[in-house]
Design brief:
Helices cover 39% and strands 19% of the residues. A hairpin with a 2-residue loop joins strand 3 and strand 4. The termini are far apart.
Length: 629
């Protein structure tokens, strides 16, 4: 047996906080070594933080990471653990995103990322240069390029994040060259359902390439991109470990690398594929011998036996239901997003929400409270402030709902009427119009802007983080006010569809029993900026609205195709009505781009987000003529 204990670390990094990031990593490194971990895996860009965006164009941002990597090597020199650490380097004027291999107090090698994603939220092709097959260079006297590393416990192949997502990944040539343990340092953002995708992908790669894969993911939220941490160990297609997500720390498991080689030898297909690759001119990846630089300590490791003590019977099923998994993942991700923005900017002392008594602001408050419970478990409400700002259109029911939920969560609640200011602004608008009429939509917008102005005034004076509470569905069609409810420092649910907002609230009502949630849900959704406003009456049923958004913005269908899809999805709705909904959605969406590009930084939880700089890059000035065929 060749037993190896692998540790997967999750560090909540801050972009640019090199020293603090390494301090956290050193703490985990020492803890891993104390638990006899042989190989400790950290994340992509551990030292610099991720994503660094165009900061890598500053030579100092890249060059100043190296002393911190040297410090990490120096301070782990006495530990009997090999570590893999993500770092950026500047080599001959080019920037590379690398996995650094550190052991015995030395930096033993650097392997650059080859697949640079430049899609969705990623822009790495703009800033980093690619590694490539056969790359053989040195950086400060250290092997830099396409290498394997031999230790007394086995042959290790480092790689970086996206390299594992391509079927033509470097893993193929490295395992054909003898690599047994492929170690992937990653920064893969949270997206709804993406955990299952990662799990399946890693199982496929470990099986296809007959190797053990250790994958460690980044943790934390930077600029609205949320990383859920965690990681996986998979041996030749068999799951070994799934590390916890949304928390700092590490998890570890023991594997027998002799088993990896035995299964590789038994797999005739893998052997045949390797032989064909060599016949076709495949070049073996060279190996750096590290056995003289580092000696592992594995005498305390024990064979990995099942905790339920059976190799044939299934382990107890601890999986969550799909409903719980979806809701808890979204809530945990958004709470992490609020908390990291609040803490890492170092600009805020308290969190504030304009609580309307409606669904969106309620969900935002509940998510903020989830974060507050983590940092102030004895009195989470003390970190939050809720403001109810009624006008003549606000109902007693919404006030009661807002007051109830604030009381149940222990959140200070203040009623600040805007009626007097609303009337004053109406009169000023009439004066500016020189006798012209103030339109109904202007009346609504005045209320929204007064509330935003007061929240900003509170924020400026209190050091408060003003959370924007609008959802993705209404934002997509411009059912929001520029300078009003579109405003805030951080948009928490801006990429959460309205149907998901309601689904989450139903779930939270089941989990908490809060009467305030029940009161909010008992009333039709509407902004209360005019008499008897109901959102679905002014727009369309929310399930249809969300379907339109997905089909148009996600699947990139034109209106005629959208209608065909909607007819299959909603056969109970007559075709003419669906056609009207499609036309209305398309017109409103394309007319509203100018609005949502002005929105604050938002938290990302999916591939389909309304963020011109991250996901959906659309021209503001455009025509809908092309949609008509």
């Amino acid at each position: 047996m060749r037993l190896v204990k692998i540790g997967l670390a999750s560090v909540n990094t801050t972009v640019g906080a090199f020293g603090r990031n390494v301090d956290k990593a050193l703490d985990l490194a020492r803890r891993m070594a104390a638990e006899d971990v042989t190989v400790g895996v950290f994340q992509e860009q551990l030292i610099g933080g991720y994503p660094p965006e165009d900061l890598v164009q500053w030579q100092g941002f890249v060059d100043n990471q190296w002393p911190q990597l040297e410090r990490f090597a120096r301070e782990t020199g006495a530990l009997s653990t090999v570590f893999l650490v993500g770092v950026a380097i500047n080599h001959q004027g080019l920037r590379y995103n690398c996995a650094a291999l550190v052991a015995g107090g030395k930096i033993l090698g650097l392997v650059p990322k080859e697949k640079l994603p430049t899609y969705n939220i990623f822009y790495e092709g703009r800033t980093f240069s690619r590694g490539y097959s056969g790359m053989r260079e040195e950086f400060r006297g250290i092997p830099f390029g396409d290498f394997l590393f031999r230790f007394d416990f086995g042959l290790v192949a480092p790689e970086v994040c996206e390299d594992i997502w391509s079927p033509e990944a470097p893993m193929r040539r490295r395992t054909y060259s003898g690599a047994e343990l492929v170690v992937n340092v990653s920064a893969s953002p949270f997206r709804v359902g993406h955990g299952d995708t990662r799990r399946e992908l890693l199982a496929t790669r470990a099986s296809d390439h007959q190797c053990t894969v250790a994958y460690s993911n980044a943790l934390g939220s930077n600029d609205g991109i949320i990383f859920d941490g965690g990681g996986f160990i998979n041996q030749n297609g068999k799951p070994v470990l799934e590390a916890p997500r949304f928390q700092e720390g590490f998890a570890s498991a023991v594997v027998d690398l002799d088993r990896t080689l035995r299964l590789r030898a038994e797999n005739t297909t893998w052997r045949s594929d390797r032989e064909a690759w060599l016949r076709e001119g495949g070049k073996l990846v060279p190996t750096i011998d590290c056995t003289s630089a580092f000696t592992s300590r594995r005498e305390k490791l024990r064979y990995p036996v099942p905790s339920h003590r059976s190799f044939f019977l299934p382990a107890p099923d601890t999986r969550r239901s799909p409903r719980e998994a979806l809701c808890e993942d979204i809530l945990d991700a958004l709470a992490l997003g609020i908390g990291d923005y609040f803490e890492k900017t170092r600009a805020f002392k308290v969190i504030g929400i304009a609580l309307s008594g409606g669904r969106d602001s309620l969900l935002t408050l509940l998510i903020a409270h989830r974060y507050a419970k983590r940092v102030r478990p004895d009195n989470p409400g003390s970190l939050l402030r809720a403001f109810y700002m009624p006008s003549r259109y606000s109902s007693d029911a919404t006030r009661e709902a807002a007051e109830t939920i604030a009381r149940e969560m222990g959140v200070p609640f203040l009623v600040v009427p805007i009626e007097e200011a609303f009337e004053r602004e109406l009169n000023i608008a009439r004066t500016m119009l020189a006798g012209g009429e103030v339109t109904p939509i202007t009346e609504q917008n005045i209320q929204a802007r007064l509330r935003a102005q007061r929240m900003w005034n509170w924020s400026n004076s209190s050091g408060g983080l003003f959370l924007q509470t609008g959802n993705m569905s209404e934002r997509a069609v411009g059912y929001t006010t520029t300078g009003g409810d579109l405003m805030g420092a951080l948009a928490v649910i801006a990429n959460v569809p309205k149907t998901v907002v309601m689904y989450l609230l139903d779930y939270l009502l089941e989990q908490t029993g809060y009467e305030g949630i029940r009161k909010v849900l008992s009333k039709p959704a509407g902004p209360e900026l005019a008499h008897n406003q109901v959102g679905e009456e002014e727009l369309m049923p929310f399930p249809i609205l969300d379907a339109c958004f997905y089909l148009f913005a996600g699947e990139k269908l034109v209106p005629s195709e959208m209608q065909a899809a909607l007819e299959a999805m909603f056969p109970e709705v007559e075709g003419a009505r669906l056609r009207g909904y499609v036309e209305k959605f398309t017109r409103l969406f394309l007319q509203s781009i100018y609005k949502w590009v002005q929105a604050p930084l938002s938290l990302h939880i999916g591939n389909l987000d309304l963020d011109r700089e991250r996901a959906l890059q659309l021209p503001v000035v455009t025509s809908s003529d092309w949609t008509k065929g």
